[in-house]
């Protein structure tokens, strides 16, 4: 079986690392010749909408999936008319535009922060009268890891934030005074089998995920499962789906969803019976899904901008290093470590040690 992947970054790399033991072969389409998954399969190097490369991918891959959601919609549509594509182009289209995504959430009864569409400076000023400060202005498309976002603390922030957007359509949303950020990862197979991972509790800084911890028996698990189930059904979804949520006083509010494997699920590689990457492949190939049961207490720490010293990291008990084979660059995710511990207390202690190493190299 040949799996085609749009994108050859670290997510594609981890999908391949999970698929090789299942006897799968991979073809990656990515503009970059040195993309970090390329060594694990056959690289097709060029633009996502290169007709010759797309034709090759469509012809040779038994199923196509993607590692990031900004694949042009027409590319996913073209591939879907020639081969199997999971998740569906519709899931991609909804996730690509924050405004479409928010109204999709609304239609399913999933709460979101209060928001307004913004297409001019005047409409931004108008929206702020109702929303109040603080608020966040976000571009509707192409935003990830806090990119294309500005925090609005007072009317003085409006002009610079609007100018930064350079006229692209945007959404302004109320700042949520959350108690914590969590995400849920669900998997649905072609046959409709569904499994959920335990919630991840996520720590972001500067809009970038730093630490995720698995929360077994979390009181918010049921509410999160109910929300993500609505998305799975409405999108007739196949594959791994991640939903990022804010918890505000016992209520979950949706931030965004990702139609792909997700950074907040990296702890599942060693911390769950079946990783999100393996389950994504099982789902799109219509194989039975694997157990999502956690193995001990697990967490993940990202390394951003720089690499830890391998010897130092591996000296931390129960730490597992995942290097992405990417050259360090400011703000770039280059590795993560998973940690597995016997108790929550031990986990917190080990996460602290990993965080010290991560902070030493972090330049973001
Ligand atoms: P996003 O790119 O939308 O996932 O945002 C990145 C991070 O910015 C989130 O994980 C939060 O930490 C923060 N953030 C985004 N939107 C809001 C909001 N409406 N209220 C509070 N924090 C937010």
UniProtKB/TrEMBL annotation:
Name recorded for this polypeptide: N5-carboxyaminoimidazole ribonucleotide synthase
Alphabetical list of PANTHER family matching this protein: PHOSPHORIBOSYLAMINOIMIDAZOLE CARBOXYLASE, PURINE BIOSYNTHESIS PROTEIN 6/7, PUR6/7
Matches recorded under Pfam families: ATP-grasp (PF02222), PurK_C (PF17769), RS_preATP-grasp-like (PF22660)
GO process annotations (BP): 'de novo' IMP biosynthetic process
EC numbers, comma separated: 6.3.4.18
GO molecular function: 5-(carboxyamino)imidazole ribonucleotide synthase activity; ATP binding; metal ion binding; phosphoribosylaminoimidazole carboxylase activity
ATP-grasp domain segment(s): 102-285
Residues that bind ATP: 98, 138, 143-149, 173-176, 181, 204, 255-256
Name of the top EC class for this enzyme: ligase
Cellular component, GO annotation: cytosol
Self-association state and partner proteins as the record states: Homodimer.
Family: Belongs to the PurK/PurT family.
Record keywords: ATP-binding, Ligase, Lyase, Nucleotide-binding, Purine biosynthesis
Function of the molecule: Catalyzes the ATP-dependent conversion of 5-aminoimidazole ribonucleotide (AIR) and HCO(3)- to N5-carboxyaminoimidazole ribonucleotide (N5-CAIR). Catalyzes the ATP-dependent conversion of 5-aminoimidazole ribonucleotide (AIR) and HCO(3)(-) to N5-carboxyaminoimidazole ribonucleotide (N5-CAIR).
InterPro entries the UniProt entry points to: ATP-grasp, ATP-grasp_carboxylate-amine, ATP_grasp_subdomain_1, PreATP-grasp_dom_sf, PurK, PurK_C, PurT/PurK_preATP-grasp, Rudment_hybrid_motif
Organism (species): Methylobacter tundripaludum (strain ATCC BAA-1195 / DSM 17260 / SV96)
């Amino acid at each position: 079986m040949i799996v085609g992947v749009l994108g050859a970054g670290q997510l594609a790399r981890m999908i391949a690392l999970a698929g090789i033991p299942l006897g799968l072969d991979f073809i990656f389409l990515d503009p970059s010749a040195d993309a970090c998954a390329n060594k694990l399969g056959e690289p097709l190097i060029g633009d996502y909408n290169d007709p010759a490369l797309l034709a090759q991918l469509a012809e040779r891959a038994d199923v196509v999936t993607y590692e990031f959601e900004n694949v042009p919609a027409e590319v996913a549509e073209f591939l879907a008319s020639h081969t199997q594509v999971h998740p569906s182009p519709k899931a991609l289209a909804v996730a690509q535009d924050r405004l479409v995504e928010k109204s999709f959430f609304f239609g399913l009864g999933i709460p979101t922060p209060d928001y307004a569409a913004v297409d001019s400076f005047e409409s931004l000023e108008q929206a702020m009268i109702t929303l109040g400060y603080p608020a966040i202005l976000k571009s509707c498309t192409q935003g990830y890891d806090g990119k294309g976002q500005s925090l609005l603390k007072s009317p003085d922030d409006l002009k610079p934030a609007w100018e930064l957007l350079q006229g692209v359509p945007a959404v302004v949303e109320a700042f949520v005074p959350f108690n914590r950020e969590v995400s849920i990862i669900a998997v649905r197979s072609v046959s409709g089998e569904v499994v959920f991972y335990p919630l991840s509790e996520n720590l972001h800084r500067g809009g970038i995920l730093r630490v995720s911890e698995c929360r077994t028996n979390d009181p918010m698990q049921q509410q999160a499962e109910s929300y993500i189930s609505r998305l799975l059904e409405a999108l007739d979804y196949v594959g791994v789906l991640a939903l990022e949520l804010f918890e505000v006083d016992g209520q979950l509010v949706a931030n965004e969803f990702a139609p792909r494997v997700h950074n907040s699920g990296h702890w599942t590689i060693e911390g769950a019976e079946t990783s999100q990457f393996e389950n994504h492949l099982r789902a799109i190939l219509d194989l039975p899904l694997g157990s999502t049961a956690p193995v001990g207490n697990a967490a993940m720490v990202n390394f951003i901008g720089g690499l830890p010293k391998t010897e130092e990291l591996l000296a931390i008990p129960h730490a597992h290093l995942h290097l992405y084979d990417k050259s360090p660059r400011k703000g770039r995710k280059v590795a993560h470590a998973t940690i597995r511990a016997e108790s929550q207390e031990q986990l917190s202690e080990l996460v602290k040690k990993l965080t010290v190493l991560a902070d030493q190299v972090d330049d973001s």
